[in-house]
Records
---
Amino acid sequence: MRVSKRATSAIALSAAAALVASGCSSSDGDGDAAASKDGSIVVHGVQPENPLVPSNTTETGGGKVIDWLWTGLVEYPNDGGAPRNALAESINTTDSKVFTIKIKAGTKFHDGTEVKAKNFVDAWNWAAYSPNGAQNGTFFADIAGFDQTYTSDPDGPDGPKKAPTPTADKLSGLKVIDEQTFEVTLGAPTAVFPTKLGYSAFMPLPDVFFTQKPEEFGRKPIGNGPVKFVSWEDNSLIKLTRFDDYNLRDKMKIKDVDVKLYQDDNAAYADLLANNLDFMEVVPTSALAGDKWKTDLGDRGRNTVTPSTAFIAFPIYDKRFQNPKLRRAVSLAVNRQEISDKIFFGTRKPADSWANPLTPGAKPGNCTACKFDPETAKTLLAEAGGFSGEMVFYYNADSAHKDWMDAVAQQIKTNLGINARAEGVPTFAVFRQNINAHKMTGPYRAAWQQDYPDVENWVNPLFITGGSSNDGLYSNPEVDALAKQASAAPSLEASHEAFAKAVEKVDQDVPSIPVYFYGQQSGHSEKIKKLELNNVGEIDITSVEL
C-alpha cells in the first residue's frame, strides 16, 4: 500500500471546497505579473522511489512530479467538481464498454513531437505487458485482452516458479483510428472507466521512450505537461521549468519550480519559516501542539481536508502475520482516538472505514476492526497462538511519522503484552524499495491518497490478488470475485453496492489497519501572492502567482 496522488469527490468535498481551493491574497498589478512571469519557487519533496515513468510510479515522491510533467485525457478540478476533459477532445460511449477517445490536435511533448493517439495506445500496451514490470500494470485490467498480456507469478516472489510468458504483447481492446482518435474496448461494461483516465498510469509516452531503457528515460523524463524536466540530483533537488509550447488551459504563470528533496521535515519547516522554502504540503507534528503552526505562519498557513487515510500494513507473505485473528487483535489494540488527540492534537480523525468517507461510494463506519477493544484483542491473540519475538513497526524517517508510529507500538506493547517497538528507515525511497521487494519483517506505515474519485480505487489496487498496491500480498478469492463483479456493474450505484460486499470480506480478514483520516496543515512563503491546492492538497503549480 502506498500514498498516491490524485482526485477527490465533487459531492463529498462540496462542503470543504472553500478550504481546499481558496487562494492567498493577490494583486493584479503589472508588477505582480512581471514577478510571476520570470519568477521561481522551491517546494518540499522527497526522493522518488523509481525513475519517473508514469505507469511505474505508485508513490507521492515521484507522483507529484509526474503530475506536473504530464497532462492526461481528463483532469480533476481543484474546486472538487466532476472530472472534465483535459487533453481529450471527447470521450464517447453508448454502452460503457466501447469508448471512442479523440484527443486535441496540436499539443506537444517536451521534445517538440506532437502528442498523437498512438502515444496513448503504445504507452498503455507497454504498461499492460507484465514482463515490462510496470507497477501500475493492473490498472489496465478493464481492457479486453489483458488476460493475454499480463501474467502473475504462480508461487509468489520467493517461490521457484516464474510467471509464464504472456501470449500477447498488445491489448486486443486498443485500436488507433487516426492520428487524433483511438478506440478502447473493455472486457465488460465499466461505468467508472472514464473517471480513471486522469490518473498517471494512463499518461501518453513519446516515441523516444520506446527507443530507451525505461530507467534511462525516467532519469530524464519527457512529458507533455505545463513544466518540463531540467535536472535531478538524488536526495537533493529536481529542477523543472515552464514549457512555453504548452497550449492547454493550465499554463504556468511562473517560470521555474525547484523540488527540494528533504530527509527531515523539521529542517524543511525551518526553511519554510525563514522563507527559504515556498511551499510545504504538511507541516511536522512538532508544529501542531498548541496550534504552533498557526502562530508561526499566520496567514501563510492553510488548513484543509483530503481523501487520504493512514494505515498500518502487514507483510502477509511473512508466516507470522498470516493469521487474521492476530491481525484483528493488533487492530483492536490501537487506540485511534488517543493518537488523534495526543499526537495530532485533533487535526486527524480516527479512521472507522476502509475507504475514506470523502470518496464517492465509500460506506462510513464499515471497519469493525477499527474499534478500540483491548479485551477482545487479548482473546483473539490467544486464539491465534500468541506472537513470539519482537514486533517491529517500520516507517520512513524523512517525514513526520515517528511520534504516531511510536504510539502505535507502545499501545501494542501495553495492551497485548507483545514486545513491540517502532523503527525508522532513513528515506522514503529506500522504505518503498523494501516494501516492493517484499522484504518487510514487521508491520509498516502505509497510506492511501486516492488516484481518482471512486470507491473502486480503494479496493482493486489494494485488496485484489495482484493489485498494483497490494504490497503485503493479501489474497482472498471471494474478494477477487466480488470486486470483479463490482467493476463490471452497469452503473456506478450498482458498482458501489457490490464493492461494499467486497469490503465486508476485507473487514473480516484485516489485511491492513486503517488508523486515521488525514487533515492537512500546509504553509507557504511570503513571496507567494496566490496559489490553489488541488483536490488532494498538493500545490497546483499552474495557479501560483508571486
---
Amino acid sequence: MIVFDEETGEIEIEKTPSTPANPAEGVINGLSKADTRIDNLEFFSHGSTVGTNALIERELPRIGLITTEGFRDVHEIRDATKEDLWDAYQDVADPYVQRRDRLEVPERVDYAGNVVEPLDEDAVRDVVRIFKKRGIDTIAISLINAYVNGEHEKRVEEIIADEYPEAFVCSSHEILPEMFEHERTSTTVINAALVPVVRDYLTDLADQLADRGYDGDVLAMHSGGGVMTTEAIAYYAARIANSGPTAGAIAGRHIAQQCGFENAIGFDMGGTSADVSLTHEGEIETTDEWAVEYGYPIMFPSTDIETIGAGGGSIAWIDDGGSLRVGPKSQGADPGPACYLRGGDTPTTTDANVVLGWVDPDQFLGGDMDATAEPARDVIQRDIADPLNLELTEAASAIEQITVANMCNAVRLVSTSKGYDPRDFALVAFGGAGPLHAAHVAREMNIPNVIIPPYPGINSALGCLLVDVEHDLSQTFIADAAADVVDDIEAAFSEMEAEIHDRLDEEGVDESEIQLDHEIKMRYTGQWRSLEVSCSRPIESMAEIRSQFHSQHEQTYAYSDEDQPVEIYGLHVTGRGVVEKPAFPEIGDGSADGAKRTTREAYFDSAGEFVETAVYDRDELGAGATLEGPAIIEQMDSTVVVPPNATAEVEQTGNIILTV
C-alpha cells in the first residue's frame, strides 16, 4: 500500500498480509497501519486479485446459461484447441457452466440481424422457473447473432425480471457485441460468474471505508489500464480479473519515463509468478483476448501480459529424465521457502539465493521476519545437489540459471516474438524478487539498462495512483476497407462516443476532462486474425489507415502485402476521464560511501567463485550515488543484485539505473 501526500510530497509505504477469507479486511488493515487517517483521504484507487483468484480456485456461484436451441454446448466445445497442441491426453479445463445448467430456448436471428424464428416466450418462462427452482440466481444470456440484434436477449431479460426479479442477469449483446459465439459466450459467462464475488467484496470495502470517514469514490483498476467506480464494476466484473498485473505495467511505464526511456519491459516477479509487459514509444501493449484458464477467453481489452510460474517460492525439482526444473509449482508465502521457518521442506529459488549469499535471511522485511539460512542449505543439498552429484553451490547456481532462463522466455514472448528488439528497451524490475534477478535477465537478453524503482515490492500499488477513469466500447463492423465507408464509420463512432460520455458523466467526470481514442480492427480478407489500427477523427482517408495496417502487420507477423485486399472487422472506442496524477519529489544528493553497511561473500557464476561483495542500505543512497558491481543493495521490500562488471547509479527521483 502506498499513501501519497499531495501537499508535502511525502510517501508512506505499508505492507500487510492478504486476508483471503475477507479481502476487504486486508485493505483496511493496511490503511489502518498508515499514519494518514482514512477520513483524510481524498482519492482511493486499488488493484485486486479477488476476481482472478475466484476464477483460478473456481470459488464461483452456480451459473445458469440461456442460449439458442441447438447451441447448448458451444461453451463446452470451445474452439477445440489445446494449450499443448501435441499432447493428445491433455484435459482442458471444465466449463464454468455445467451442461445441466445450460438451457435452450427456440429463437433465431440471422447474420444480418433479421428475425428468422421468433422468440418462444413460454419456453423462456419455463427455463427461468427451472433456474429458480434450482436456486440459480446468476444467469447469463448468449443467443446466436445477438451481437447484431439484441432484441431477443432484451426480451429474455424482461421475462426474467418478471418471473425471477432477485436474479442477476448478464446479456451478451451488452457485454460483448461481437461475432464468434464461443468468445462472446465465454466472456458473458465469466462476467456473470464474477459479479456476485466482486460486488460483495467492493460493497464491503466501500461500507468499511465510509464507516471510517472516507466519502469519495472507491475506484478499482481494470484490465484495460484505467479505473472504474464500484457501481460500474458491479456489472462489468470481469474487467478487474487482470487488475493487479495491469497496475504493475502502468507503474513500470511511469518509472521508465521518469528515467527518460519510452521503450520499457516491465518485469514483476513475486513469490509465485512473474508478469512481463511491454511499453513501446510510451504506449503499453494491449490485447483484446486473454484468459485465466486456457480455452475460456475474456474479450475485454487488457494489458498484454505474459505470466509464468517463476517466483521466489518456485520449487526446484528433478524430473523423471533426471533434469533439473524450477517451477511452475510454488511454495508461495505459506509455508514459503525452507528458510522462512514456516514448514516449507522443498528447495525454492529464494533458498538458492540465500545459499548464493545474495539474500540475507536476517534482513527479510527489514529484519521483522524470522528466517535462517541452514534449512535452505539442507533442502538443496538433499533434493538437488546429492541426486545430481553437484556441490551445494553448484546446485544453487543451477537453480538460479534455470530461473533466469524461464524469465528470459517470458521476455521473448512480449518482445522478439512480436517484432521488438530487446536491445531497444530498458528492463523495469519490481516485485519482491524482480530486482534480485533482473541484471542477469538483462545480460542474457542483451538489454543494456535495468531500472529498479524506489519501492519494488509495492510498485503495483503505485500504478493505481497513475490511472484515469476509463471505459471502452467495441462493436462488429464488417466492410471492405477499400470502399467508401468513412461516413458509416463516423456514424458508428459517434454513437459509441455518446454512450461513453453518458457512462463517464454518471461517474462524475467533467466533459472537459474526457479524452477519446479510436481504433479500427482490420485484417486481410479471408483471414481471422485482426489488428487494431489507431485513427483520429474526422477520418480523412481510408488509404492512410490501410497503410498503417500494412505496417503493423509487417511488424507483428514479419509479413505484409499491399496488393492484398483488406477488410474492416470491428470498431473500438476508449474514453478516459483524466485524473490529476501525483508529482513525486526528488531526493537529496548523496554518495554510495555513506550507504555502505558491510560486506559478505556472494557467489556469481560469471566469476565462478564467491566474491567479497559490498552491501548497501537503499534508504541511504542519495541522488547521484554510483557504485560498481559486485554489490548488493538491501531494503525493506526487496534486494537488488549488481553483478560483477555492472554499474549502478541513483537518479533524482530515487530510481536505480543499472548498466549491465
